[in-house]
Structures are given as structure tokens and as C-alpha cells.
Write a structure and sequence with these properties.
By secondary structure, the chain is mainly α. The protein folds into two domains: about 40 residues, no CATH class; about 220 residues, Orthogonal Bundle (MetI-like fold), CATH 1.10.3720.10. The protein has 14 helices and two strands, in the order ααααββαααααααααα. It has a two-stranded antiparallel ribbon with strand order 1-2. It is globular, with a radius of gyration of 35 Å.
């Protein structure tokens, strides 16, 4: 091949690309790295009422405000003795109740009455919680248990716990056991019914999945039924605790010789109106503390409910 042909077949020389001027790399400011106030920093989060309420402080403030409004309304109604069909002429003022608190704390009698009532309500409530939860799981899970137990339960459920007082006195050997039994009845049926509904509302897919993985019936009860019905169980416990206090106070007023219900009824018999109000307030505080304890236990037993509650407004 001729030299001229080789030169014609050679590739053309590469084009020279003009070099671009280098721009200096901007280093981040030291303030931005250290968290200082630098230009372009993220703006502060705006105030959110929802976050404020969820922080705990907001709920405490609103709760204190609610109680303060009740006390203020109570004071104004008794101070000016309002009489608009509802009569406040004989209702004690908050200061009268405060003086009654100071008076009853001079001895241990009032504290002993509180301790006796708390012991009674806890005995009846824990007994109802165990029996009601176990029976509710059995009735909700197995049809034969439902057929055997529910007709009798539905027969006794409409009977108020206070109506059992005469029968309980005849059934049990002492008034103490009778009062605990009445408290048990008051808490039992709310726990039972809520547990049954909780078991019945568990998705059938969960049972089929457990059985397909080789789970035995005991494992299904422990790992499917109980966790699935736990929210309803705690709802029944909260309702049952309230009904237990109502039943206990009524039983103590009728047949008791000690307890906060007996203290309140005795104050009525002696026409000591501040002591009546003190007994009522004490019952409310004790019931509130018991309900709060159940709420705390439910949060510890169901930590996943905190995530679900985040969608609540």
C-alpha cells in the first residue's frame, strides 16, 4: 500500500477540548456543623396543640383546669345558695369539707375505713378479673362452653348487684364475705362480656395461620386469643372497676359496719353534711386511682397501642 493511502486511512487527530475554569469548592460553615445559627438552618417546629396534649403537660393542665372549674362552680353555688329547682342551701362549701378533712385526720378511724374499702374492692375485683377473663375466653372460643354457660349468665346479668344484698347475707357466713361477693358480682359481668366480644372479633385468618404453622390449641390461646382480645379485656377491667366501687359502696351502706360507704351513710344519719361530701369525694378519688392503675397496666401490656393512638386527634 502506498504511503499516501496509509495517510488517508489514519484517524484524524483528537480535537482539543478547551479547559474550563475551576470553581472553588465551598466548605460548610463551622456554625452549621456545630449546630449554630447558620444561614439555611432548619426552621423551628411550629406549635402544635396535638403534640402539646400528648406531651403529658397539656393533659395535666387541662385536667387541673377542669377540676378547678368544678370547685369554682361548687363554691359559687354554695356561697350564694342558688335555688333553681336544684337547691344548694344545705350543701356544704369547699371550706366546710376542708375543715372536715382536718377533723377526721385527728384519728385513724377514717384511714381504717378507707383501707377496709380498698381491701374489699380489690378482693372482689381480682376474683372477678380471673374468673371473668378465663370464662370469657372459653365462651368466646368454644361453642360448647357458650351453649352451657351463657343462658345462665344472661339470666343473672340483669340482676343489680345491690339486689343480691339480702341473698348474700343469707348465703355467706359473715358480712365481710357478703360485701366482697357483691363487689365480685358488680365487676364480673362487664369483664365477662367484654372478653367474649374481644375473642369473637379476632380475625379467623389468624387462627388458620396458626394452625397451618403447626400451633397447638394451647399455643393458639396464649399467642393468638389473649393478645387479640387484650384490648377488650382491659376495657372490661376498667368498666368492672367502676361498677365494683358502686356495688361496694351500696353494700357497705346497707349491711356494712366499716368502710367508706358506711362512713358516708353514718354521716347522713348524723346530719353531718361536710362528712357526706368528704365521703363522696374520697370514693371518687379512690375510683380514679384504680382506673388510672388499670390504664397504666394496659399501656405496659399493650405497647403497640401507643402507635395506634398516634392517629387520634
Amino acid at each position: 500500500m502506498a504511503l499516501s493511502d496509509r495517510q488517508s486511512l489514519a484517524p484524524p487527530p483528537a480535537a482539543q477540548v478547551p479547559s474550563l475554569p475551576r470553581t472553588p469548592i465551598r466548605q460548610p460553615r463551622l456554625e452549621a456543623i456545630e449546630g449554630g445559627a447558620a444561614a439555611g438552618a432548619a426552621p423551628a417546629m411550629p406549635f402544635s396543640l396535638k403534640h402539646w396534649l400528648e406531651s403529658g403537660l397539656g393533659g395535666a393542665v387541662l385536667g387541673s383546669f377542669s377540676i378547678a372549674m368544678v370547685l369554682l362552680g361548687w363554691y359559687l353555688a354554695t356561697r350564694y345558695k342558688l335555688d333553681f329547682y336544684v337547691r344548694f342551701a344545705n350543701i356544704p362549701t369547699p371550706m366546710d369539707v376542708w375543715h372536715s378533712i382536718l377533723e377526721v385526720n385527728r384519728s385513724t378511724k377514717f384511714a381504717v375505713n378507707i383501707g377496709i374499702s380498698v381491701r374489699r374492692v380489690l378482693l372482689g375485683f381480682f376474683g372477678a378479673a380471673i374468673v371473668g377473663t378465663v370464662l370469657g375466653i372459653m365462651v368466646g372460643r368454644y361453642r360448647i362452653c357458650r351453649s352451657l354457660a351463657m343462658p345462665a349468665m344472661e339470666l343473672f346479668r340483669p340482676i343489680p348487684a345491690i339486689a343480691w344484698v339480702p341473698m348474700a347475707i343469707m348465703l355467706w357466713p359473715s358480712n365481710e364475705v357478703s360485701i366482697v361477693f357483691i363487689t365480685f358480682l358488680g365487676a364480673f359481668f362487664p369483664i365477662l362480656i367484654n372478653t367474649i366480644h374481644g375473642v369473637e372479633e379476632i380475625d379467623e385468618v389468624l387462627f388458620r395461620a396458626a394452625h397451618s404453622l403447626g400451633a397447638k390449641e394451647k399455643d393458639v390461646i396464649l399467642h393468638v386469643v389473649i393478645p387479640g382480645a387484650l384490648q377488650h379485656i382491659f376495657t372490661g377491667l376498667a368498666v368492672g372497676m367502676g361498677v365494683a366501687w358502686v356495688s361496694l359502696i351500696a353494700a357497705e351502706m346497707i349491711s356494712g359496719q366499716f368502710g367508706i360507704g358506711y362512713f358516708t351513710w353514718e354521716a347522713y344519719s348524723l346530719i353531718s353534711y361536710p362528712d357526706i361530701a368528704l365521703g363522696m369525694i374520697t370514693i371518687g378519688v379512690l375510683g380514679l386511682l384504680c382506673s388510672k392503675a388499670i390504664h397504666i397496666c394496659s399501656k405496659l401490656a399493650m405497647p403497640w397501642m401507643g402507635v395506634a393512638a398516634g392517629a387520634r386527634k
